[in-house]
Amino acid sequence: MKNIVIMTIVLVLAVGAMGLYGYLLNGVMGYLAAIATIRDQASTAGQREVIRRAQEAFVADTAASQEEVGALVTRDSDIVHVIETIEAAGRREKVLVAIGSVQIEPITSMQHHELVRVTMSARGTFASLGAFTTALETFPIASKLNSVDMETAANNLWFGTYTLSLVKEKAL
Q1: What string of H, E and C letters represents the secondary structure of 14-76?
Q2: Hey, is 121 helix, strand or coil?
Q3: Taking a C-beta distance cutoff of 8 angstroms, is the pair 169, 112 a contact?
Q4: pTM
Q5: Both 44 and 117 in a single domain?
């Protein structure tokens, strides 16, 4: 029961992190759209200079937020590293992990990002599968553990299937 409560708390925190990521990204995108509109409306050199200064101030003011959001998003070239990190988490928690599939899906509301779904299976003791689940839920990137299914197998071992979604930048 205690493991379920801990897993639930960790899942709620992960969903909160995803919400914060979306909120920050939406705010930055809104400001960028406003800047583009203001720039298009400026017709004189003086107005353009004022707008240029405002844009520079905006970029300087939001640099920290952009870095925070950027740190949560996986780059296209880092997908292999993410898979290796999942496998390393399995080894650390004494779980045999097998990656079943990696699927890339477009995100209709985002032009420069894609959704990556990683489906995997794991085998180990109930405690080690619980620790592995916690490791997946606390990934330091924008990710969400969509599903966890665990069932008992022979010799006091358990078998689990997991689906993890994460956000990555589109390849250029």
Answers
A1: HHHHHHHHHHHHHHHHHHHHHHHHHHHHCCCHHHHHHHHHHHHHHHHHHHHHHHHHHHHCECH
A2: strand
A3: yes
A4: 0.58
A5: no
Q: For residue range 63-120, what is the model confidence (pLDDT) as tens digits?
A: 666 666 555 666 767 788 888 989 999 999 999 999 999 998 887 877 777 888 999 9
120 by Cβ neighbours in 10 Å (0-12 / 13-18 / 19+) ranks as buried
Evaluate whether residue 21 is within a structural domain: yes
The answer to whether 144 touches 110, Cβ cutoff 8 Å, is no
Q: At what angle do helices 2-41 and 126-137 cross, to 10 degrees?
A: 20
DSSP-based three-state secondary structure for 87: helix
The one-character DSSP state at 112 is S
CB 94 within 8 Å of CB 135: no
**Between the CA atoms of 15, 18, 19 and 20, what dihedral angle is there, to the nearest 10 degrees?**
120
Do 127 and 61 share a domain, yes or no? Answer: no
Domain that residue 36 falls in: 16-72
With residue 167 as reference, give the H or E element that holds it: strand 158-169
Structural domain count of the chain: 2
Do 87 and 149 share a structural domain? yes
Q: How many whole angstroms separate alpha carbon 126 and alpha carbon 156?
A: 8
